Amino acid sequence: MGLIKKTHFILLLLALLTISDVQSQEVVSWEPDFRFTWSDFKGAVPVTSSAAATTASGITYRFSTFYENDELQVDYKVFAYFYPTKSWYKPKLCNNITLLHEQLHFDITELYARKLRKQLAEVKFTKNVKEEIRKIYKATIRQLNDFQNKYDSETNYSRNLPVQERWVKEIEEALSER
């Protein structure tokens, strides 16, 4: 095998290993009855972090297009996921209130997944569907991050119990709306 063919083979092999690693990553889809336990947090605690816990969650989507009666149709799916191997906690600093705080981070992710679904349902797409969806997705992720930061700030990372309780009620109500 020539040097160029070996290089292409190695690059292809690395690409396949990377793809399979991402695809094999443990994920948990948001479900109404799913509640965290500390055993769900399987990631390594970063040595330099001052946080008590971190919930790694995110929104993903996929879509396809087709024509029906000469009109472009978009079929999409949006998911809120929790990533156990990227989520972690420090047992000496955490309690049930901390766990509830982390649960709300995942629940907030689901709220923004719903917002993304709603926005996609309301859009009249052009032939530039991929870019239009990407733009809506990026804006939603920015809003989600801002909202997550507001939640942490207002609750002082679960330490302000009255505010934490208010957030619990507000998020539960928002999730119960259909």
| Cα shape | elongated
Q: Work out the count of structural domains.
A: 1
The structural class is: alpha+beta
User: Alpha-carbon distance between the termini?
Assistant: 60 Å
- Give the % helix: 40-55%
pLDDT averaged residue by residue: 89
Please give the order of strands in the largest beta sheet: 1-4-3
Q: What can be said about the biggest beta sheet?
A: 3 strands, antiparallel
What does this protein look like?
With 178 residues, the chain is α+β, with helices and mostly antiparallel strands. It has one domain. The protein is 52% helix and 17% strand. The protein contains 4 helices and 5 strands, in the order αβββββααα. The chain has helices spanning 3-24, 96-122, 129-155, 161-176; strands spanning 28-29, 53-54, 57-68, 71-82, 88-89. The strands form 2 sheets. A 3-stranded antiparallel β-sheet has the order 1-4-3, with helices on one face. The protein has a two-stranded antiparallel ribbon with strand order 2-5. A hairpin with a 2-residue loop joins strand 3 (57-68) and strand 4 (71-82). Helix 2 packs antiparallel against helix 3 and helix 2 (96-122) packs parallel to helix 4. The longest helix is centred in the middle third of the chain and has 27 residues, at 96-122. It is elongated. Residues 1-22 have low confidence and may be disordered. Keywords: Signal. Residues 1-24 form the signal peptide.
